Amino acid sequence: MDDALPLDQLEEEIAVHRPLLFKLAMVQLQNAAAADDVVQETLLAALIGRGSFRRQSQIKTWLISIMRHKVLDAIRSQRYVLAPTTPPSDDECNVAVFDALFDTNGCWMDAKDAWTDPASSAEQSAFLKVLEACLTRLPERTSRAFMMREWLGMETSEIQSLLNVSPSNLRILLYRARMQLRLCLDLNWGR
Amino acid sequence: MERQALSCRDTTWLVSDARERRLTPEEGRSLAEHVATCPFCSRASVQFEVLFRQLEMYFGRQDEQGDGSKP
Fold this sequence. Notes:
The structure holds two protein chains of two kinds. Chain A has helices at about 5-15, 20-30, 30-50, 60-75, 120-135, 140-150, 155-165, 165-190. By secondary structure, chain A is mainly α. Chain B is an all-alpha fold. The radius of gyration of chain B is 14 Å and the shape is globular. In chain B, helix 1 (about 10-15) crosses helix 2 and helix 2 packs across helix 3. The interface between A and B is large, with 44 and 34 residues.
């Protein structure tokens, strides 16, 4: 507890991340009032539970992990009327965009650079900044499906029914998200 | 039985699928064999590993274990 940030400093630092939290909540809930509530609950929970914040982790990451439970709860409680999901567009399910990466035999065209985990904490936050930028560039439904899986940790069956997509379309959405993130990092971090 | 060799493109599907389900022993073997002999895929698979680890870092999920919800 000695290590806890002073309340006013924490309030200030937390407020900085409000827009990002709102954006993350909106992708999932598609309802501004619901997203606002969830962000509000998250910030309150952070202030109340500030003793559990460890300084070596980033405030942003800590907030995102608190909000994870709030978003799951909002989705599952059916407290809110969530906008019905339109199925992903053909474009979002089109894996041909990655054709350029492979030759006709399905082999990589381009020599890959090996990048490794960031070594220092400065490098770590630089990496996460690039990763965050790459995440925000994912198409909307791709992002929603991907974040349901990798952030919220939902099972694929739950995601399929929430998003009204077939197992094979979900598989494609998740594949596209991962391929796109790898490519984005390769272009913006790897070289 | 002669196995169909994997292409690099096939391996990217398996790497992605493995986040959702356990690969079959057959798939796991083909993937490992391909990655071991293909320098491109060996680097790409390291990139994916870094990506997945860093995503967990970003989402603050790297300390979680066995709650059944982690991909």
